[in-house]
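Let's do one together. I've listed all components of the complex below, 223 residues spread over two lines.
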Amino acid sequence: SQTIHQWPATLVQPVGSPLSLECTVEGTSNPNLYWYRQAAGRGLQLLFYSVGIGQISSEVPQNLSASRPQDRQFILSSKKLLLSDSGFYLCAWKHSYEQYFGPGTRLTVT
Amino acid sequence: AQSVAQPEDQVNVAEGNPLTVKCTYSVSGNPYLFWYVQYPNRGLQFLLKYITGDNLVKGSYGFEAEFNKSQTSFHLKKPSALVSDSALYFCAVRDEGDYKLSFGAGTTVTVRA
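Okay, and this is what the predicted structure of the assembly comes out as:
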């Protein structure tokens, strides 16, 4: 069966520090992968999606970037965090018609 | 363009009563519709989907949803709510040819014992 992992689960970082969040998927190949941010426990904002290795589509201009160095690995990065980057970051992969989500990373920028 | 509206921020029901969470959508082509549930500090869990076929779709944990094309709605229902159904519910839509899901703002469901 397929599994999606995210780490770390929680992260507290100072403003101006770098960020790297990782997402990996097991049990499938060539998945479509997605990064979302959820602010204040409400709606989800699509940040990036990828349909293959090295292919990244950005949905919102911002302080973040994404990379897909391997088929089942999706990384979210920032060179310098802002306070507004705080939130709950969710990775997802698409299977058939629906998306399945990882457990999320809670990022607090102080 | 595609969008989803969940008109209720919060729904409160008593345990054992029917539960309905409302959703309306807008897409330019054929809609693919989804419901997800989220418990505190967790990722979203997939409940059910409508792609084509019967307008009434059944999903996990006793939930079902009815697709209504004329009203562009996809309301989530459960005949008898449980306290454990208390959570945040999201409706989502994507156009048939799109990679991206659009999510509603979410509806918080509280089921009281």
